[in-house]
Give the backbone structure.
Amino acid sequence: MYFIGLLFISLLFGQVFRIPLSNGITVYPHDLIVGVMIVYFLVWKKRKKQVQEVALGLPLKLFLLAVLISLAVNIPFYNTTDYLSGVAYAVRFFLYAGLYFLVREDKKIRWDLWLYGTGVCFSILGILQYLLYPNLRNLSYLGWDPHYYRLFSTFLDPNFSGLFIVLTFFLGIYMYETIKQKQFVFVSQVFLLFTLILTLSRSSIIAFVIPFIGYLFIKRSYKMLVALGLFMVFLFFLPLPNRSVTSLFRTESSVARVTNWQESMALITKKPIFGYGFNLLRSVQEPERDNGSASPSHAGAGMDNSFLFVWATTGMVGLAAWMYLLMSMVKLGLSCMKDKKKRMLGIVYILSLSAISIHSMFINSFFYPWIMIWLWILTGIVEQSLDIK
């Protein structure tokens, strides 16, 4: 329980507390906590000598194999420092995936309550940031985008913050049906929608609206569809400070993303089978940084689409394994939906997967640390509810 509390508290630190190492490698407090939790879990499993079958075991193994192959075949093309960045990122991804196994086994903890509470607290921090620190332009020299009058909370990025809020809102739908404090959840849900608006993140709003429309059709809640339409009208005509910068109709970022997709496809055509190596694109796209001319950046591997990122870094082999993993997760959610008592949890899981998938078309959100942790914990919750042996 102690480490679980530390984990969720550390998630609230966001990008504010980060330990930059060499070559773009960054360690967060939650990385260390997750590492300790996974090691303890493995020791406990070994002592108990219990090995249970998990739904995503094979897909995860195949994706791990694809990642290792992509790193192995590209060893000759990178120096040691650059190569270690890809290895470190792969370790982080599968370390987070370990939370899925841990949560699946630990039935004493209300992981859903911890997740939802963290999301609500994150949004509260976002409101405080919006009121007290609305301008991120003074941190541009450190590589952060100059967001102005937008809620970016401790992630220092309104797009990832928006998706985190969307995932919290969807989980709140499930929480409303499973806890007695329904009034608290209702107020929290309204508050989350308000903070989502303040992010002015179009990718997050789309990631919310499209799955939520699907949910309303499933529930046959046509009155809510009308309410959602009014919400969208209000959103587009919302009076905002410095409208030229905060407008939802701004075109600069849209043009930049289209350009990024074109550049990504150009890279993919050169190494389509095994890719450039997992998370090794930075040294491919920014060779000038070796001479110290490049400015700091937090753009990660430089690709604004998670699917193109997987294809470019692990090739067609990795993309096939990744799609198999995602389809297995969808299958897990659908299995949960078949049980009447767990139907809402399955719906929320599918909604969350849909939101991340849509959002990842514009931002590399599938591989953002906080989104990865959220998704793997939620996956563990879903499989735990099914009690798969």
In short: Strands lie at 19-20, 26-27.
